[in-house]
Amino acid sequence: MRTMLLLLLFCTPLSALEWQQVKIKQGIEVYQQKLPDGLLKLKAYTVTSGCLAAFEALLLDTDNADKWLSNVDSVEVLKSPSQNEHIVYTQFNAPWPIKNRDMVTYSRIFRTSNRQMQIGIRAANNEYAKRDGFIRIEHVAASWVINQRDADTISVEYQAIADPAGKIPHWLGNSVAKSNVFSTFKKMKARLKLYPCNAI
Q1: START domain: from which residue to which, for each copy (predicted)?
Q2: Cα–Cα 20 to 30 A to 73, which of 52, 62, 101, 183?
Q3: d(Cα 97, Cα 173) in Å, to the nearest integer?
Q4: Looking at the DSSP assignment, which residues form a beta bridge with residue 155?
């Protein structure tokens, strides 16, 4: 039921929950929606150099995910049901005083056209047993939408809801989440330059 609630909230029309601007800096825009349970739905947006193939290559380069995903220690693809579907295990190195988290997700990449790519992400907890030393993030829903604006420029939009679990007060978890999404976008823009547009 909790997972269904998160998915329903994730799909809530904009007219029902208005976006509030959190930050605009270095070409990165961050917004939030305050949900009834105290969690935040976050959105980040930027325009940057790159192409769809480079962005997909960045996502699939899990060995280097910790170089741009904020507070991520490691990312492992457990299995790939198809070329565009992946079951992924992620470990987070959380800042003190928050305990380390981990997460198992199912992601699917959609090429909706030759100028747009979408990625949908949801929890897939049954795919991997819980591990000692980590608190499992069991409720998560996220999406990426990448549009090719011209030959070497893309727009990137990310939206996510996640319950960090454990006994983190909402104000602390929300603060860390907002900081993480900005940091991730900042490092993503720099990292994308390493992936050529003929990568895939």
Answers
A1: 58-197
A2: 52
A3: 11
A4: 47, 147
